[in-house]
Every structure is written in structure tokens, then in C-alpha cells.
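Quick note —
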Amino acid sequence: MSDEMRTMLLSFKVDVYKRVITGEKIYEYRKVFPDELVVAYLYVSAPVKAITGIMKLNNKTSIESWKDKYSYDDKALTRIDEYLVHHKYAMEITEFQETNRIPLEQLRDEMPGFVVPQMYYYIENSELLKYLGKKLQPIGEKIVHDFSDISSDLICKH
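Predicted structure written out below.
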């Protein structure tokens, strides 16, 4: 595992974000992801339209590799095949911290040129990252996931 880290603004739909907040969602699935540890600032789409959380993603895994690991579970294999239609990798959501919301209107007003991510984009060494560092405050308890014992019913869940 590399010591390197990427920082991104990652877009979520409201229903997916709700599963992150409850701790139900423990993996992020994408077609493309970096190999490094990721710190992701979360932009939640309409109707929320705000940045409202930070997560750490780690241990990029090929979803295809789970076919061997969970070969004993036919339901899991079916879910894996369904996910492989639109996704190639899973990353563990090792930590999630909800924050105060910075609404899209405020972002556009205070950060001219702000762009809503379609999927994600990197924000290392950016004015946006400095801005988020000043404006975001944690709310509630941090959610930490332990991936030492992942059963087949926890992967590729909708």
C-alpha cells in the first residue's frame, strides 16, 4: 500500500448518501478509482445540493476478484455480476464524518468557478480545498468501519 493520498470532491445521490450516514454503505463502487488512499469531500446532489461530509477510502479492490472469494454464495455472485455492468472497483469506506452543509449557492458565490462533480475530481493544492478546510465543521460521531471480517452479504449491496 502506497503512503500517497489523493483528495477529491465526490458526488453522491441523496439515497446513497443516506446509507453512508447510517453506516450501512461500507464500500464505494466506481469504474475508475485511484490506487492511493483517498480523502473525499462529499457533494450531495439535488435536492440537497451541498457539500456535507468527508470520508476516507482505502484498499481499492477489483470487484471481479470477489467472485473467487465469495464463490460459495450464489446470491453474492449474482450481485457481483450486476455491479460489474457499471463498476470495476470497490474501495473501503474506512471513515465517514458528517459536516455542516455548504450549499451550492454559497459555493458558487464564495468560490467563483465552482464546478459540481459529475462523478469526482481531484482538489489537491486547490483554493477549494483551503476553503473547505476553513468552512467545514464535524457534526456528530465519526463512523469507522472495520473490514477484518466481511461476509458475503455485505458486498455489492444496493
